Amino acid sequence: MNILVCIKQVPGTNKVEVDPVTGVLKRNGVESKMNPYDLYAIETALRIREKTGGTITVITMGPPQSAAVLREAFAMGVDHGALISDRKFGGADVLATSYTISQGVKLLGNFDLILCGKQTTDGDTAQVGPEISEYLNIPSVSNVSRIVEVQDDGLVIAMDMTTDIEVVKIQFPCLLSVDKDIFMPRLPSYIKKQATKDREIKVITLNDLEDKDEKHYGLNGSPTQVERIFPPDANTHQEIWNGSSMELTDQLYKKLRELKFV
Amino acid sequence: IEYVEDEVVSIDKSLWKGIAVYVDHIDGVIHPVTYELIGKARELAAKINHPVYAIMMGSNISSQCHELLHYNVDKVFVYDHEKLERFKMEPYTAVFEDFVNTVKPTVILVGATPIGRQLAPRLATRLRTGLTADCTILDIKENTDLVQIRPAFGGNIMAQIITPNNRPQMATVRYKVMNAPERNPYETGEIIQCDIAPEKLDSRVDVLDIIPKEKEQFIEAADVLVVAGRGIKKPEDLGMLQELADLLGGQLACTRPMAEAGWMEAKRQVGLSGRTVRPKLIITCGVSGAVQFTAGMNNSEQIIAINKDESAPIFKTAHYGLIGDLYEIIPNLINQIKAGKGVI
Ligand SMILES: Cc1cc2nc3c(=O)[nH]c(=O)nc-3n(C[C@H](O)[C@H](O)[C@H](O)COP(=O)(O)OP(=O)(O)OC[C@H]3O[C@@H](n4cnc5c(N)ncnc54)[C@H](O)[C@@H]3O)c2cc1C
Ligand SMILES: Cc1cc2nc3c(=O)[nH]c(=O)nc-3n(C[C@H](O)[C@H](O)[C@H](O)COP(=O)(O)OP(=O)(O)OC[C@H]3O[C@@H](n4cnc5c(N)ncnc54)[C@H](O)[C@@H]3O)c2cc1C
């Protein structure tokens, strides 16, 4: 089985601030880490490989320093790593990100299974997985809460639909976005980290891709544009209500209606 | 980052008309986010003088389509086919694509449900257009550009996003973010039956089984919490708080003394030595508001406190503080909610 896992490097904390003057995110001095939801995707890949054998490749798109998350995946037991990195890929929205990753995937060869995390802790859209699957024309399922069975031609998995769980059979090749808690992610091992510290990481740039038209990537290839970012209104609003029990009840009931809880 | 300025061909936005809402449903049960989006679509459409469309795909859904006509939509486009019975990514995307190619709406709104969050990105990619996730505010410019505001970084920042040179413009919105319109007693608008070639409805995913889920019993997962504090005098009185929690679709939680007394399970205790919660609404009843308690809940979105002592520290944490007796307020409130539900 040939498994690919998509992972992303994100800021170490999501308590980021917006510079009130420039309206730019203050990212300086913020450490980076692997998107925590991607640890579950890696663990899922490792568990499946334990059953079926095969290899696991991790791929990330980002600036050169994001190779750190590939090394972390090696220390968890992943076999290969590829970094998609080019200045021309900068500023990509989900559509451009997914296109770039799908181009990179085509270059790496054929995979039976592609795994993504549920979402990231920065952009937080949960859209990249389904968008990659469309570009690759493979079926995909999100909210995967359990791998029920690995079969020769596909997987039986459980998909969490909030009110019920749907058990579905999905054919290979396919893409799954896995939920948090599908498996408990293992810690990176120091021994594996040492053993893989010189392992080669394949770097993929625009020139390596089948489609070399730079208008399809980065800011140019992104239909959405962020016009501005700003801090949310903190809920610092406070009111104290006095009155008879009946008055208080009426006021409370009105408030619950206004807030759409009843 | 390089931006290639030249050669960007501007699209003709006047070719795209209408605000379309995806009718989210499982087995024909329409998710209420759908009506909220129809309400928002109507508001946006009024600003640019466009029609409001609903698109529904499923099997045997004609009564549902008539129900939609009570919510002031101009046209309901229906794809009724047995292969569309349960949501499946590939056929649903094919149908949606067919709708967009025929109708050419300028905006598509989709509920951020487990279905919408898979379907919308798949469709956006097929249409090579932008999709903004989990919008909390939507507005529209005169030139039909949709102004989409959404939280990112776990709600720590907000981003305003536009899709200036692609149509349709797509956005997902979570449940209970927009206001649902009133249901009209009469039907307006029309239902349009649509067809699609059945071979487009094949899927590489098969549903094997559907298992109903037990209600989640973790207080961390609840959107609404009603908290019992020592203001509750006997264990039997917890019943009314449980009833309130049920009416609000939430769960019952407690302070430490309540757990220690064995009146409630330890896993329902909020606070430093209990669970940290961040629900959309928390109503504390007879809770003094010790720091060890508030440390576990002060990030909740709406905090309502009921306490008869006006100097109780909980009033420093609450957004709405009611100085009064919970034994009078709670039963009254329960009656009002029940009466209100009866009216609707
Ligand atoms: C404040 C803000 C708001 C934004 N809002 C939008 C928006 O509404 N619409 C939009 O189109 N773009 C938006 N973007 C841009 C978007 O965040 C980026 O395109 C980002 O690269 C991918 O989206 P995500 O972080 O939401 O990933 P998600 O879709 O949440 O990630 C899901 C999974 O996809 C995989 N994955 C994601 N990114 C990568 C990567 N770079 N390399 C490898 N695997 C990856 C991982 O497995 C991850 O767990 C926004 C950016 C910011 C800063
Ligand atoms: C190390 C440590 C860890 C702790 N961890 C936790 C923790 O995790 N969670 C926790 O909850 N506590 C914790 N505590 C205990 C905490 O300090 C408080 O003692 C506790 O939160 C008080 O619970 P209470 O508000 O229910 O009771 P009380 O403090 O007794 O308050 C009862 C309140 O009810 C009001 N009241 C009475 N009758 C009525 C009525 N009819 N109508 C309206 N209001 C009425 C009273 O005015 C009073 O304010 C911890 C303490 C320590 C030292």
UniProtKB/TrEMBL annotation, chain A:
Highest taxon in the source lineage: Bacteria
Residues covered by the Electron transfer flavoprotein alpha/beta-subunit N-terminal domain: 22-213
Signal peptide interval: none
Gene3D superfamilies found in the cross-reference section: HUPs (3.40.50.620)
Stored PANTHER family: ELECTRON TRANSFER FLAVOPROTEIN BETA-SUBUNIT, PROTEIN FIXA
Protein name in the entry: Electron transfer flavoprotein small subunit
Organism field: Defluviitalea saccharophila
